[in-house]
Design brief:
This protein is mainly α. The protein is built from three helices and no strands. The protein has one domain. Helices cover 47% and strands 0% of the residues. Helix 2 crosses helix 3. The chain starts with 28 loop residues before the first helix and ends in a 7-residue tail after the last helix. 13% of the residues are buried. The model has no long low-confidence stretch (mean pLDDT 85). Keywords: Membrane, Transmembrane, Transmembrane helix. Pfam families: PspC.
Length: 76
Amino acid sequence: MKHHRDYSTINNIKRALSKDIRNKKLTGVCAGIAKHYDLPRLAVRVAAVAAFIMLPVVTGVAYVVASMLLPRSKYY
């Protein structure tokens, strides 16, 4: 039996895109993107590697910029 709550839950709180420090491999960018969009971390990492193989300069620059601009996650 499901119980519906009317007060704020974690799904109602607006989440900002941030790096996931707990599940990081390099800087936490892929883990943060996966967490924000509710995707599997492995799928995002595989897509990032595939993009890096096909477009290495663009993907490399985007990853470095994202790692510098995205804040660290406040919540673990």
